[in-house]
Amino acid sequence: MILRMSEHGDGTQFTLLGGVDAVDAGDLPAHYGYPDDLTRCWVRGNMITSVDGAATSGGKSGALGGDADRAVFGALRALADVVVVGASTALVEDYSGVRLGATEREARRRRGQSEVPPLAVLTRSGRLTRDAALFQRTEVAPLVLTSADAAADARSHLGELAEVIDASGSDPASVDLHVALHALAQRGLLRVLTEGGPGVLGMFTDADLLDELCLTVAPVLVGGNSGRIVAGAGEVQATLRLDRVLTDSEGYLCLRYGRARRGPAD
């Protein structure tokens, strides 16, 4: 239903949500497909926030989640070629490798993907412990996207547990996201899903590399001083368009925002 405003908002139209057909969890891939015929990395972010804008509760984003969020989280992972995450988020949230069922694996094989997408960990320092769950509880060795200064030590320390990639640009002490995405593209990993944290999502936003954002709004108030889903040194305004809204009986809102598609050379 479209509502027209006659006072104080002439020309503004609102859409009253509700009354749409139900979407089963098994149908989610049809609502979150990547563009066809990609020739470059397409970067999708997936984050959760409380109604009052908190990115975490008790220091962890997982504490905000519900059944709807977990269903979308799993569907997005099943569609991705690679899951990119910052090292601090991987450790705080105790990341292990992606786990998929037989149905999801078969769907991936039909799409020409590997059965399980690898994690790609962004870390400037390359300092990751060998006993972390992301190395010890995974079917696929993670990729470690690190700086030129740290790459040799990281390879020596991690050995066969990961593929360490030098992702520096002009600064050998830093990770350049353009270089990191180029390395992923060379490996055929074009459907990129980043799960943050806020600093990593801020880097993608600042570099104008985020193509879309899947945002779950949890029906809770957190208060306190929790950060937002995007963090960075400076303010960046990136205009998004709302492509899709899903909700469940608990009141979770699953929002999909997109941006105008960039050209292959961008």
UniProtKB/TrEMBL annotation:
InterPro entries listed in its UniProt record? DHFR-like_dom_sf, RibDG_C, Riboflavin_Biosynth_HTPR
Which is a Pfam family this sequence falls into?
RibD_C
Q: In which pathway does it act?
A: Cofactor biosynthesis; riboflavin biosynthesis
Q: Which intervals hold domain Bacterial bifunctional deaminase-reductase C-terminal?
A: 42-253
A GO biological process this protein is involved in?
riboflavin biosynthetic process
User: What are the alphabetically sorted keywords of the record?
Assistant: NADP, Oxidoreductase
* The keyword NADP belongs to this UniProt entry's keyword annotation: yes
Single annotated GO MF: 5-amino-6-(5-phosphoribosylamino)uracil reductase activity
Question: What name does the UniProt record give this protein?
Answer: Bacterial bifunctional deaminase-reductase C-terminal domain-containing protein
